[in-house]
Amino acid sequence: MAFVILLGVVSLFADMTYEGARSITGPYLAVLGASATAVGLAAGFGELVGYVLRLVAGYLSDRTGRYWTFTLVGYVVNVLAVPFLALAGRWELAAALMVAERFGKAIRTPARDAMLSHATTAMGRGWGFGLHEAMDQIGALLGPLLVAAVLFRREGYAIAFGVLLIPALLTLGVLVLARLLYPDPRDFEIGTPPLETQGFPRIFWLYLVAIGLIAAGYADFPLIAYHFQKTSLASEGWIPLFYAVAMGVDAVAALVCGRLFDRLGFTVLGGVALVSALFAPLVFLGHFRVAMLGMVLWGIGMGAQESIMRAAVAGMVPAARRGTAYGVFNSGYGLLWFAGSALMGVLYDVSLPALIAFSMGAQLLAVLVLFRVGRQRGA
Question: Which fold, 2-182+200-378?
Answer without folding.
Answer: Growth Hormone; Chain: A; (1.20.1250)
